[in-house]
Structure formats: C-alpha cells, structure tokens
Design a protein that fits this description.
The chain is an alpha/beta fold. It is about 35% helix and about 20% strand. The protein has five helices and five strands, in the order E-H-H-E-H-E-H-E-E-H. The radius of gyration is 14 Å and the shape is globular.
C-alpha cells in the first residue's frame, strides 16, 4: 500500500521560477513537481498530492481536510512562516509527521524572515537547499 503525502505551498510560491530567481531559482515549482518529485515518489511508493494557496484560511482548511487521510504533510508556508499562529495550531492537531521546508535559507536572509512560528509545531525543518528541500523531506518520510 502506498503512503500518501500532501505538499502544501503558501503565498507567492506559485511564482517560483518567475520571481527573485537569484533566491528561488529559475525553475517553477510545478515543473519541478512534475519532472522530479512525482518520479521519485513512485520509486519510494508514495502517492503525492500538491496544493498551493495564497490564502491562510484555505491552507488551514486543507490541513483539516486531510487529518485522517494522509500520512505526512510537507509544507512551505511562504510568508505565513513568520506570523501564522493559525497554521501553527492546525498543524498541532495533525497526528502524523509534518515537515516545514523552505527553498532559501531563511536564517541567512532579512532579520524578520529568521523567525518561524510554524517550526515549533512541525517534526522538522529543511531550509536552504532550493527546490531539493522538498525531495529531502520526501526521502525523510520514505526512510
């Protein structure tokens, strides 16, 4: 039986590949997802679902909707990382692993980006490995 993993991307991550390429890279997340993550997930016997929203409440609703369905969440909360206690609380209600990922190293950026209110609610954090951060989280789950 395949394990099920949900990847959630927060605000502006739909612009990956078109925005601040020196920070977020030149490849869109959708292309990376289709070209690399799905292929790796098949090898690892993991069923992937991808969800992106620019709206905090929609992300919370999505987390609530999979609480009894998925086996893991990989979440890049985007700017919500720094102030969404509501997403933090939704993650705290989940009974399976949740990994917070960031494309850039948030600890080497602007001062306000160095604090995550999400991190205390998750299993672990992967930051600074570009789009490969998602693959590292997927491999963590597979092991």
């Amino acid at each position: 039986m395949e394990k099920e993993v949900l990847i959630i991307n927060g605000p502006n991550l739909n612009l990956t590949g078109n925005r601040e390429e020196e920070i977020y890279g030149y490849k869109s997340f959708n292309d990376y997802y289709k070209e690399e993550l799905i292929a790796e997930a098949k090898i690892l016997h993991i069923a992937l679902e991808y969800y992106q929203s620019n709206h905090e409440g929609e992300i919370i609703d999505k987390i609530h909707s999979v609480m009894d369905i998925k086996d893991m969440i990989i979440i890049n909360p985007g700017a919500f990382t720094h102030y969404s206690y509501a997403i933090h609380d939704a993650i705290k209600a989940v009974k399976f692993p949740v990994v917070e990922v960031h494309i850039s190293n948030i600890f080497a950026r602007e001062e306000w980006r160095k604090k995550s209110v999400i991190s205390p609610a998750v299993t672990g954090v992967i930051s600074g490995f570009g789009l490969k951060s998602y693959l590292l989280a997927l491999k963590y789950f597979a092991e």
